[in-house]
Design a protein that fits this description.
Strand content: 25-35%
Number of helices: 0
Order of helices and strands: EEEEEEEE
Length: about 160
């Protein structure tokens, strides 16, 4: 019987080789000071932007959709039936006729038989449905609101 002897030799060489050019070694805690120019895409509210990255010198901001539940309801009364007196709460020096879209007014009127009616200014299709007194009776008129109507008055467009 013949025997064979096998020898496995693995050689690993770990070492450094000198080079002619210097190698940059990493420095611990090294920070890079980078200044980013203000822009309309930097994700910051800067420059004269109205909101982040829009308005001012940037593109216009998207319109905000304001949703509200209208609690007011229109109460329509046949004006011909009302004739025994009328008072309007939003009459003032600037609005002697009571057509005041900036104040939610209340008109108190009476039918011929004396039955009282209360008519409140309310919102209708984004405008004010304004009640007022005319010749001792109640009347109504739809007044256009630039920024829409909220709670029976023309809204000033300011978000609080």
């Amino acid at each position: 019987m013949r025997w064979m002897i096998c020898l496995l030799v693995i050689v690993v060489i770990v070492g450094c080789v000198p080079t002619e050019e210097p190698i940059d070694e990493p420095v611990e805690n090294e920070s890079i000071d980078e200044t980013v120019a203000e822009s309309c895409e930097d994700g910051l509210l800067n420059q004269d932007e109205e909101q982040i990255d829009c308005g001012g010198i940037c593109a216009d901001c998207p319109a905000k959709v304001i949703s509200e539940t209208i609690e007011d309801s229109l109460e329509v009364t046949d004006v011909a039936e009302v004739s025994n007196g009328c008072t309007d709460s939003d009459v003032d020096e600037s609005h002697p006729d009571g057509l005041n879209p900036d104040i939610k007014g209340v008109v108190e009127a009476h039918e011929k038989d004396g039955t009282p009616h209360t008519l409140r200014d309310s919102c209708y299709t984004g405008n004010v449905f304004e009640y007022f007194c005319e010749n001792g009776t109640s009347a109504s008129k739809e007044l256009e609101c630039e920024f829409g109507c909220r709670k029976g008055i023309c809204w000033d467009g300011i978000i609080e």
